[in-house]
Write a structure and sequence with these properties.
2 helices; 0% strand
């Protein structure tokens, strides 16, 4: 049968692990988040698409630095 000292060590270890897990959850929830509107997402995707198409066209025509 485990001694009382062993139970205290297990309780202490589980407490430390619980506090660490709680700290991780709090830190994750405090991360800065940016909420985008639907139109902002659409605008950003369209801009990235047009930039990618321009780079592709430049690469195909042999413009220096477009690779």
């Amino acid at each position: 049968m485990p001694s009382t000292n062993r139970w205290r060590k297990l309780l202490g270890l589980s407490t430390v692990l619980g506090v660490a897990a709680t700290g991780v959850l709090v830190a994750r929830s405090r991360r800065p988040r940016r909420d985008y509107e639907k139109w902002q997402i659409t605008e950003r995707l369209r801009r990235r698409h047009s930039e990618a198409r321009q780079r592709l066209e430049d690469a195909q025509s042999g413009v220096w630095g477009s690779e």
